[in-house]
Design goal:
176 residues
Length: 176
């Protein structure tokens, strides 16, 4: 599957196809990192809203991180066997479902379930995204793509809590 796409991208050698592929990859990497850090400034507001303990709300961070681990162990090798797209698209859908669960949560339990789903979805996408630059690019193009992804991985964790704080302050904890 990716061999056909790779040949089209390399054969075309067009700036637009490279830009689209690179942009999509960078966007997915940024979103997966933001899901872990964006809502952290809202933890006190979530605690107050659901009238629960700070420890229980903080455990949503642990639930998320633990849920990212298992999919990476199993779905990475499956993406090699069945194709990246068949793993990435369902992973994005599961993460989106988790986000919707958190958005419409009426209890802290729904937040925990939503965070678990987000983690599982991000875990499915995470392991697969790291292999795509090697699948699609060679030489200088691959070096550029890997360095761009590295830059995103370095910058987004710094920006995400600030953006989350802004959203929390101006809108509501559900916005983050």
């Amino acid at each position: 599957m990716f061999t056909k796409i790779r040949h089209k991208i390399l054969a075309a050698d067009s700036t637009s196809s490279l830009l689209i592929t690179s942009s999509l990859l960078v966007f997915l990497v940024a979103v997966q990192i933001m899901m872990s850090d964006l809502y952290v400034p809202s933890l006190p507001a979530i605690t107050e809203y659901f009238h629960t303990t700070p420890e229980l709300v903080k455990s949503s961070v642990a639930v998320y991180l633990l849920a990212t681990i298992l999919p990476q162990l199993f779905l990475g090798p499956l993406s090699d066997a069945f194709g990246r797209k068949k793993i990435i698209i369902p992973g994005v859908m599961v993460a989106l479902l988790g986000s919707l669960c958190c958005l419409f949560a009426v209890s802290i339990d729904m937040i925990l379930i939503g965070r678990m789903l987000q983690g599982m979805g991000v875990g499915a996408v995470s392991g697969t995204l790291r292999t795509i630059p090697r699948d699609l690019f060679q030489g200088r193009k691959m070096a550029k793509m890997v360095s761009t992804v590295g830059l995103v991985i370095g910058v987004v964790p710094v920006i995400a809590p600030m953006l989350g704080g802004y959203l929390q302050h101006h809108y509501d904890w559900r916005a983050a």
